[in-house]
Amino acid sequence: MVNKAMNSDYKIERKLMTDLITTMEIGSLCALGGGLPLPIRNALKYFDNELAQYFS
């Protein structure tokens, strides 16, 4: 999904990305799966202007 957005005109729905991150945090059975979404969530929060071109 991310590669497709970077290499074409495809736009990722921000709500879908947020839902996927939340699902990983809540639904993971190990600490790695629960902590993995944190850098993505922070990138979306702090680099919103830079990433806006990939989201609808």
> What's the gyration radius in Å?
12 Å
Report the helical percentage: 55-70%
Distance between the termini: 13 Å
Largest sheet: none
> What order do the SSEs take from the amino end to the carboxyl end, as H and E?
HHHHH
Strand content: under 5%
What is the number of E strands? 0
Mean pLDDT: 88
Low-confidence stretches: none
Coarse morphology: elongated
Number of helices: 5
Class derived from helix and strand content: mainly alpha
Number of domain units: 1
What is the gist of this entry?
The protein has 56 residues and is mainly alpha-helical. It has helices at 2-7, 14-27, 31-35, 37-46, 48-51. The chain has one domain.
Descriptive overview:
- The chain is mainly α and 56 residues long.
- It has one domain.
- Helices cover 70% and strands 0% of the residues.
- Helix 2 packs antiparallel against helix 4.
- The longest helix has 14 residues.
- The radius of gyration is 12 Å and the shape is elongated.
- It starts with a helix and ends in a 5-residue tail after the last helix.
Give me some keywords for this one.
56 residues, mainly alpha, 5 helices
Question: What is the topology?
Answer:
Blueprint: H1 2-7, H2 14-27, H3 31-35, H4 37-46, H5 48-51
